[in-house]
């Protein structure tokens, strides 16, 4: 099967600059609404956020979704109603199952440098989960010229991944120029070679990324990859002058 690839250009995403927060939205979020970009399967939110020093998101509530932050640079302090207090840095992935309801705050405690991170929401199969919190660290050495497996279905979770309560995988890579990685589309949790979908997001930190047929992503771009089944191979190649850091989602 030949994959269908549709570009999501960075400049076409939702955008807001609140002074303390510079944010881009891949899907409809807050004041940004586009009927064509509301979700992609269970993937509901990809926000690329830059929060200024001594600023942040005050205490607010969530329920239903599984919410995770991928830290690109800076320091993000997390506090929540479960008693968790943690300072997150580059390489950290902080994961919250909001379930029946939690409240939390996310704050840049650094007095000089902004914090840059991806905020991602996924809709689990059960929205009434018991709230839970988890953090794992994925240093650059695990991701350089490699696809690091970060999130997997809870039923398939191992010591290296964070478990999520739906058929969803997340990978991350930092590709040096002229390097490639191949991703094998995951098996569906229900078994068999069922149709799946991928979404790839290239962070705005630099580099360029080529997918399979020559579709090229520039910083901040994303791409929808459909018409693939488990076992298919998708190739990602760094073709810019700088390293290309990207996240890849593989979902039912």
UniProtKB/TrEMBL annotation:
Residues 12-122 form the Pirin N-terminal domain. It comes from the Eukaryota. InterPro entries: Pirin, Pirin_N_dom, Quercetinase_C, RmlC-like_jellyroll, RmlC_Cupin_sf. Residues 150-251 form the Quercetin 2,3-dioxygenase C-terminal cupin domain. Belongs to the pirin family. This is RmlC-like cupin.
